[in-house]
Design brief:
Helices cover 38% and strands 9% of the residues. The chain is built from ten helices and five strands; from the N terminus they run H-H-E-E-E-H-H-H-H-E-H-H-E-H-H. The two termini are 45 Å apart. The structure holds pyridoxal-5'-phosphate.
Length: 231
């Protein structure tokens, strides 16, 4: 059971939460991610709907959605053609498992993605989020080296200030200290500073003898998020 800091529980339960448009008190059960929960309840910013590039808040105000719904609604909110396509699909098949049985549309989408990616990136593995994709790529990189007979190659590299989502792999690989500080060493990851971004590939290509430590790490370390290094 998660324990609240002493006194916090009393303060939060005794707070008179504002009500939404249905008159329901904003309760404390929804634990909001990446949000200062207590502050939010003191000063809630609620949305009621969306259209095109805008959210509509509970006061009826339009708010420009500069993040496209956290990067999920790039085509705009509530597009009629998307609503129709989703409704048509729901009326035909609401969910198609990918374990042991398949649906033609998943194959068709994989083919489309492969046609857009550079040559050699021809296999598509679908996940439900960026965080899940990050963890899956960690698993793939580790499995690759095990199959190559080098199970000891387990260390990963990430970049300072990098963000790879909220799961164990993405949290470990991410280089935002505040996102990792409560969890200790979740995975064996070395974070390279951002300043060597341009120099790194050039130095590695030339195999310069006197490399600084990030460069030596780059050559020595076994796994990267993008692809495994050559043996
Ligand atoms: C590079 C990268 N990896 C992972 C994620 C996490 O994606 P999600 O929020 O879908 O889990 C993000 C999200 O911004 C991202 O930019």
């Amino acid at each position: 059971m998660f324990e609240l800091k002493s006194g916090l529980k009393d303060r939060t339960t005794s707070r008179a939460y504002p009500a939404d448009e249905q008159g329901t008190a904003l309760n404390q059960h929804f634990w909001m991610p990446f949000s200062a929960n207590r502050d939010f309840r003191a000063n809630p910013r609620m949305i009621a709907g969306a259209e095109g590039r805008y959210y509509i808040d509970d006061q009826g105000r339009k708010l420009f959605d500069s993040l496209s719904g956290l990067w999920t609604c790039g085509a705009g909110h509530n597009r009629e053609e998307i609503q129709k396509a989703v409704a048509a699909q729901l009326g035909t098949l609401d969910f198609a498992p990918g374990f042991q049985i398949g649906h033609p549309l998943a194959f068709k989408l994989a083919e489309k993605v492969a046609s857009l990616t550079p040559a050699g990136l021809d296999h598509v593995f679908f996940t439900n989020s960026g965080s899940e994709a990050a963890d899956t790529s960690v698993k793939m990189a580790k499995a690759y080296w095990r199959l190559k007979g080098k199970p000891e190659k387990t260390r990963m590299i990430g970049r300072a200030k990098g963000y790879h989502g909220v799961n164990i792999g993405g949290t470990s690989l991410g280089g935002i200290g505040g996102n990792r500080k409560h969890y200790g060493q979740l995975m064996d990851v070395t974070h390279l500073p951002i300043r060597c971004k341009r120099a790194m590939p050039i130095l590695v290509a030339k195999r310069k003898p006197a490399l600084s430590w990030p460069m030596r790490c780059w050559i020595k370390l076994p796994c990267t998020m993008r692809r495994p290094l050559p043996p």
